[in-house]
Write the structure tokens for this entry.
Amino acid sequence: MMAMKRLLVEYKELSLRPPAGVAAGPAGDETNMLEWECVFLGPEGTPYDGGCFHSTLSFPKDYPLNPPVMRFTQPLWHPNVYPDGKVCISILHEPVEDKFGYEQSCERWSPVQSIEKIILSVISMLAEPNDESPANIDAAKMWRTDREAFDAKADECVRKSLGWA
Amino acid sequence: MDADDELRAQAAAQEAEIEGIVKSRPLIGPKARDFVSDSEMRQILHRKTQESGFESLREELEGTEAFVRKIPSLESKYTGIRHVRGDGNCFYRSFVFRMFEVARTDNALRTRLLDVAREALPYLTDVGYEEVSIETFTDFCVETLESLDKLSQEDLEVLFGEDGESDYLVWFGRLACAGFLKHQPDRFLPFIPESFCDMNSFCSREVEPMGKEADQPQVIALAEYWQLRVCVEYIDSSDESTTSTHVFGPGDDDAPGDICLLYRPGHYEIIYA
């Protein structure tokens, strides 16, 4: 299985040199390499600072020809995260043309990308939401028009992620 | 539903229909004539397809007189055709499959390709690719070449069939192509659309993603990367009664192609001399 081989290589690399504030690896025993867990610490200086956010990465059998699906397992108030937790950033989009030509200029998935690049994209997504093609329209609107309310909602997520709310 | 939504729904339905048609064809069809009568091969390869050959090409092109007119000239030069799925990867899939098919029985060529493939990792990291994201592909290509002489023709066709892992080899074709372009940006930049400011952005948008069709720079790059002579017969709407022939890669003008492909607007297939 080519996907397993590649995922093992990436797992090894991520264990040796993990990106700051992130832990990622297979969710259960290592016989199922297609399901991963990934924990993010909310980056400093962002509304998510101090939070501890759990997510899952589900890889297709033909990874890395196609990208994994990433989903936060608790609510995350963010313009680029669907209310069900699914993360929507360009690097996680399949390589085929978008039906209506959106996101032409963004970097999409191809096998030269990696889990590490996804993680780095998520960290920068937390710091700088992209409100042009939002997954959560209400969050995007609030982020644009009422930053104070947005930060309060984000803080609520931080508290929930720590079991305080 | 407003007019916009309706248009979108129509477009989506049409797209789904086209995708269904594309996927109903095999990734790599049987080679016409040689294999059509072989019942075993039919079992392996004809799960979803009909008989294929110049006859079916004629059927497909029916109605476009300028295209049909050129088929006899093709038949006089070539003995068979192998259809390849039109999913945007057809150039790479045709090239890579035919390369392995020829090298399976040609020891000298296989040795030469192995030398190139074993150098692929440093060649590609040299232009900025990260080892961790490409070594699965370079390894797989080397392993497949190493074991190629132990594969039967059927094994090879199964490998390139629906359930095989051939897309990893097809994508390696894209990677090698992009690597070659990045090694010679000054030579190729004048031939890529002006909307791409540099070779890296061209490759990440047009070459590296699966499903992106190949233009002439990609054909030249892949031919020269593997040092294979590629002969492309163009079937188009010109007034001529013959296809026009374009040859890429090394070799004298009149040398035969290592790989012969048929191109009609938007699609590549394999043809056999």
Residues 34-52 of chain B have pLDDT under 50 and may be disordered. The domain at 30-40+51-272 of chain B is CATH 1.20.1300.20 (3 helical TM bundles of succinate and fumarate reductases). Residues 3-23 of chain B form the longest helix (21 residues). The CA atoms of residues 234 and 244 of chain B lie 5 Å apart.
